[in-house]
């Protein structure tokens, strides 16, 4: 069956469910359904370890009886099962507490236009080909250097899916999407020292994944480069967050400006709208409609239309991020962020990777962060780290078993540069980030 026909059939089901909810006493209702078909293949030491097939799908409905909400879901799409699911949701709503902030998103915010974002590029789910790709990545890693002694495996994933959302304000829209990824993690040894590292690639198009042998070789190269790692003495020094992990820094910013944290008063960025948070040269733009974007969407999980948006303007906190519920809690409007953010593009200073090392001068290049030592209320930051010691812009030796610490407000304000070479494999696209001064706890 063609994907367009499948989406149309699901839209019919969603339409029926919404009408059924209104007939059962709901004043408002919304329903969504996702279907995913996929394969996941993993290998270890050139042998197939797991082959998993996915064929999941389920419909969820939320009904509102006045300001009372009830939700239910089902994987059975028979008329009898759908009717029972709606009845359960309405029954639940009658017993829940009244909440003045609950309900559908405001009608004027609901998406009405659905341009093609080019998210769907189907390939046959070929198990043999997937196995071949995973083993090729592992083989390339194992053959790269004799110090690569073992692997944590390689994994190839392919997922073809669709999502349909509808509510009683009139939206009933769906779109298909595809996602492919390949990763490889290996273990290296030299004397008694053992290290591990990984590499991965992800794309909406299978043929735009990086070649398997490159992923294996990169995993091996990164692992070998970490052998002989040393500890550092405790000090205050500049830190360069490698582009592969720098998005995490801005991920903490996402959490701090999200409506849920704000109405609970559990954010270190509370009441700072319009204030200087980053250097004046730094801007962050959100682009929800990027073709083939990994976080692209015409509407959020509540049907609210997404729009291009400036998140940080000349270092100023330009907007908070609201769902419908958090917006009503704070007497404002949804920004279309139910379900997450949509392709953040972090501005840069035009520096190449080497130029970023030159700007670091002497300090720590961090390539891995561990632990969750971040306090969203105070902004206090403390995480385990590994990477490389750099002198005069030149990497000297690997470093491990250190902790980097600071406060996110100070870290944001003291960003010295952002590299031009962005990591585009996630919802936040950024280059490496140079921080002026952080506390390093070592030996």
Automatic annotation (TrEMBL):
<dbReference type="GO" id="GO:0008237">
    <property type="term" value="F:metallopeptidase activity"/>
</dbReference>
<dbReference type="InterPro" id="IPR045569">
    <property type="entry name" value="Metalloprtase-TldD/E_C"/>
</dbReference>
<dbReference type="Pfam" id="PF19290">
    <property type="entry name" value="PmbA_TldD_2nd"/>
</dbReference>
<dbReference type="InterPro" id="IPR002510">
    <property type="entry name" value="Metalloprtase-TldD/E_N"/>
</dbReference>
<dbReference type="InterPro" id="IPR047657">
    <property type="entry name" value="PmbA"/>
</dbReference>
<dbReference type="Pfam" id="PF01523">
    <property type="entry name" value="PmbA_TldD_1st"/>
</dbReference>
<keyword id="KW-0378">Hydrolase</keyword>
<dbReference type="GO" id="GO:0005829">
    <property type="term" value="C:cytosol"/>
</dbReference>
<dbReference type="Pfam" id="PF19289">
    <property type="entry name" value="PmbA_TldD_3rd"/>
</dbReference>
<dbReference type="GO" id="GO:0006508">
    <property type="term" value="P:proteolysis"/>
</dbReference>
<comment type="similarity">
    <text>Belongs to the peptidase U62 family.</text>
</comment>
<keyword id="KW-0482">Metalloprotease</keyword>
<dbReference type="InterPro" id="IPR036059">
    <property type="entry name" value="TldD/PmbA_sf"/>
</dbReference>
<feature type="domain" description="Metalloprotease TldD/E N-terminal">
    <location>
        <begin position="29"/>
        <end position="93"/>
    </location>
</feature>
<dbReference type="InterPro" id="IPR035068">
    <property type="entry name" value="TldD/PmbA_N"/>
</dbReference>
<protein>
    <submittedName>
        <fullName>Metalloprotease PmbA</fullName>
    </submittedName>
</protein>
<feature type="domain" description="Metalloprotease TldD/E central">
    <location>
        <begin position="120"/>
        <end position="227"/>
    </location>
</feature>
<feature type="domain" description="Metalloprotease TldD/E C-terminal">
    <location>
        <begin position="235"/>
        <end position="442"/>
    </location>
</feature>
<keyword id="KW-0645">Protease</keyword>
<dbReference type="InterPro" id="IPR045570">
    <property type="entry name" value="Metalloprtase-TldD/E_cen_dom"/>
</dbReference>
